[in-house]
Fold this protein.
Amino acid sequence: MSATAARPPQQTPAARRFAHLSFAIMAGGWVAFLIALVTSSRTLDDLWSAVADLPLVLEGIAWVLGFPFLVGLAIWQASWAEVLRLVAIATLAVAYTFMFRPRRPAR
């Protein structure tokens, strides 16, 4: 085995910044979702309508860029019991935020 094969992977400063920025966007997005849910659920309804009214290509781009948040909006628009919708959205928010947490490279 060569000496280079035994070296642990290094995370560049740019990759570290990207990881932290991605986490901040995810956590901040869910905080904004929660604030809109608590203060004015009508805002979420308006946002859902605005995305649905976009031309198909733009709606697709919106779904790619904001997938977890739009899934949360879709859950909020569902006809399920309110407590079930809240639990599903909370589970989604925690799962996505956990997936985006910055990690140290494996040693």
